[in-house]
Design brief:
P-loop_NTPase; chaperone; elongated; single chain; ATP binding; 12 helices; 5-stranded parallel sheet; two-stranded antiparallel ribbon; alpha/beta; Rossmann fold
Length: 356
């Protein structure tokens, strides 16, 4: 019996030891799991902080790269505008952007003629008359009147609220009315693309007048804007040519009176479009027969003949009678020799452009 009791006590002690060992192992395991969890949490926090730092660095690098791209784009645009590589402004300063480069880029982006800022505007205005005479042959009076009107405007002697100048060219076809408008746009604003030409035969109906300032809200084409207002809004420095003005609807003249008087128009979208930096030109064939009577058999003007009266303008003449126009000139038919000179001048201009 004593032996049996001893065996039972030994078994009981063994079970207690085994249970204690299991509890100890369990405690160690839990402690290890807790330690691993803490380690993983710390590692996760470290990784998160590291990712945030890397993101900030990448963001800084991105901004730096974007700035670099903008600088490269600006320099390339300046070089393209000048038509050459960016020159060295001073010795030892390679790749400096000059005043002419900046002016060229601004001119391309805005459409404002600032490319020739290096030249004095006074010199350009003084050379306006000779340049127009070179392009338009045989229209001494008209060219002189146009040049003097532009010079008066730039000298602040004209109405500051109206356009730079406004003209009405009357005469038969082929005397240089449109060519004079192109020459004026090319010299004043450095490109013939600055000429906004509107054919008034497209505005003979009353409903077509809305195309100039845009369709009313709710109508088709409201988002597109007006053909006149959008063109001037996008290119504020331009020559606006209303070709064959006598064919336009009477409501067009009411609109033009506002342009010539106030120098602005409100389009269908409520935007105010300024015409203060534009030159307004209207052409008409009315009176062509009267002008033809003043021309001899060989195309020469009859000496002492009376200047033709444009009584047929009627409602159109209100633009002149209301003193909205600065000049109104009758462009006479050119002499045959002068017409030949004009053709030769255009041919020489084309040859010069091809050589360039």
């Amino acid at each position: 019996d004593d032996d049996d009791d001893d065996d039972e006590e030994e078994e009981s002690d063994g079970e207690e030891v085994e249970a204690a060992e299991k509890e100890e192992e369990k405690a160690e395991k839990e402690e290890g799991e807790k330690r691993n969890k803490d380690t993983n949490h710390e590692t996760s926090n470290e990784n998160q902080d590291k990712n945030v730092a890397e993101s900030e660095q990448l963001r800084e690098l991105k901004y730096t790269a974007q700035d670099l791209k903008e600088r490269i784009h600006f320099r390339r645009a300046a070089a393209a505008a000048a038509g050459r590589f960016i020159p060295t402004a001073h010795k030892g300063h390679e790749g400096c952007v000059t005043e002419a480069d900046i002016a060229g880029v601004i001119s391309r982006w805005t459409g404002i003629p600032v490319t020739k800022l290096v030249a004095s505007e006074r010199e350009r205005l003084l050379g306006l008359k000779s340049e127009l005479h070179r392009r338009v042959i045989g229209q001494e009076e008209a060219v002189t009147a146009v040049a003097e009107a532009i010079q008066r405007s730039r000298a602040d002697l004209a109405d500051p609220n109206g356009p730079i100048a406004s003209f009405m060219f009357l005469g038969p076809t082929g005397v240089g009315k449109t060519e004079l408008a192109k020459a004026l746009a090319s010299y004043l604003f450095n490109s013939e693309e600055a000429l906004i030409r509107l054919d008034m035969t497209e505005y003979m109906e009353k409903h077509a007048v809305s195309r100039l300032i845009g369709a009313p809200p709710g109508y088709v084409g409201f988002e597109e804007g007006g053909q006149l207002t959008e063109a001037v809004h996008r290119r504020p420095y331009s020559v606006v040519l209303f070709d064959e003005i006598e064919k336009a609807h009477v409501d067009v003249f009411n609109l033009m009176l506002q342009v010539l008087d106030d120098g602005r128009i409100t389009d269908s979208q409520g935007r105010t479009v300024s015409f203060k930096n534009t030159v307004i030109i209207m052409t008409s064939n009315l009176g062509g027969a009267e002008v033809a009577k003043q021309v001899g058999l060989k195309g020469t003007k009859v000496e002492g003949g009376p200047k033709p009266k444009m009584d047929r303008l009627t409602r159109r003449d209100d633009l002149a009678r209301k003193r909205r126009l600065q000049e109104r000139d009758v462009q006479h038919q050119s002499k045959p020799t002068e017409a030949d000179k004009s053709s030769c001048s255009e041919a020489e201009e084309e040859e010069r452009e091809e050589e360039e």
